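Researcher: Hi, I'm a grad student and pretty new to this. My advisor asked me to get structures for two proteins we've been looking at. I'm not sure of the right format, so I'll just paste the first sequence and hope you can take it from there.
Model: That works fine. Here's the first sequence with its structure tokens right after it:
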Amino acid sequence: MPNWLSNFVLPKIRAVVSRKEVPDNLWKQCPSCEQTLFLRDLVADLMVCRHCGHHFRIGSAERFGMLFDNATFEKIELPKTAIDPLRFRDRKRYTERLRESQAALGAGSEAVTVARGQIGGIAAVVAAFDFAFMGGSMGVAVGAALVAASRLAVERQAALIVIPSSGGARMQEGILSLMQMPRTIIAADLVKEARLPYIVVLTDPTTGGVAASFAAIGDIAIAEPGAVVGFAGARVIEETIHEKLPEGFQRAEYLLEHGMVDMVVKRGDLAATLARILRLLCQPAIASVPMVAHP
């Protein structure tokens, strides 16, 4: 029969000794192997699963911090472009979607951020995409940012490194977004004509108009492990050709085997790899000097 011990004392004791709930934001589940990862460890591992090697998507700020020497860099103010030039509306107004993305990444942000600094002691301009901003889609502002990055690289005699993570052209800007494809190719050509390195680091995903423009013409094409790279999605291709695609089709490793990318590099090795490439391209006489073993 219930009494004051079970009704009053016992609940008080349980409240004191029971474990506190662990906040949800301390853990993250890997979408590949489904292991639960301690977020602090995951950040220390550069957002790469220590169990299966899955590379989580990261933003431009994380990219800059891990690539530039001593995490020292200067962000570049990008040109202002027209907002909602077509007055587009689907389920929401385009301006509302922009506000939502900027609320998450900061006022005035866009799908790409540009910074300059040094990588391995070599001057470099890096344009990194944020997939969190409307899927990294390419509109007029992105095209203008890449043109500005190219001009800055030429002005500073620096290498240009572009790190796309995008679903393609931004539908809310219609034909204006498609016009950024030739525009960004011309921007890349400015760097090449100046005989400066133009390197593309393909991350997950790089698709649509981005994959079919500036992302496809790097002097050197590097991909992160497991990154999906291609113009159309695998399901669309299968429905079009009525055939089953090979296992791993459009993944970085498949593209490497078929000569579409030059190398697949783990995130933890990317900074050192870029530094070595830049030294070879920008200081060939120094980089080619053989190492001499001293007794």
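Researcher: Oh nice, that was easy. Here's the second one.
Model: And its structure:
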Amino acid sequence: MSVTQESKKENIGRRDFLRVSAKALAGAVGGGAVFAESAAQGKDNEVGNAATSFPTEDYDWKKHRWAYGIDATRCIGCLRCVEACKTENGVAKDAHHFRTWVERYVYVEGEERARVDSHSDPQNIAASGSESEYRFDNRYKDEKVTKAFFVPKMCNQCQHPSCVQVCPVGATFRTEDGVILIDKTYCIGCEYCVQACPYGARFFDEEAGTSDKCTWCYHRITKGLQPACVEVCPVEARIFGDLNDPSSTINEFIHKNRVHVLKPETGNAPTCFYVGLDKEVS
């Protein structure tokens, strides 16, 4: 057995042990609240003592405050962002696992509510001919469409994330620069965070046995690069930057537009800001 195989086996064994422990403690103390508090504190201590900077010595996460902007009036539904995300982050290339996705909203004459579909819709999959290729079909060619637009979605990297609150082992945490990450060596695959996210931005990775989601390409932005989805967008519908930098594109986007966040009533306080949204978008 190779070192990689041994490490993988050890991690799986550890997750199985923690999964059993979490369930047992959850039954003893009511939802695992004590275990969650202890684990979260341990995570903070571990990161704080490891180094003054994270994730590398060349990056100081206390100097940045990342945010994301989406201009729904520009998005053309080309889905290059989805393809780039899957390639960059090793997400399964099927129609059921996405770190970012795009929804289509179409108003047909005589109907009060929009019809909504995404590239994972069965009709769109059939139009592409493969679950690993993404496109929107032309189902509305014979309809009288009064209004239509595309809405890219992903993890909103909330300031008060419900996913962090429910994680029983502290595997999901919020970084100093505002990004929600998952430490997969701690994740026990309970999927509490998947259920708690009000935006449907998380999914369970069956192969890894852990939860997964968008991280705004944290491995890229901490090196001064743009998220993969932002870099490939041909119409600049996706905007990313540092709120601590007054001259950043995200600050310009927020200051020049009337921005909105999704589901503000949840109290999660997203740091993903939209323009051009219809009231039906949630």
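Researcher: Is there anything I should tell my advisor about the second?
Model: You could mention this: The first strand starts at residue 66 and ends at 71.
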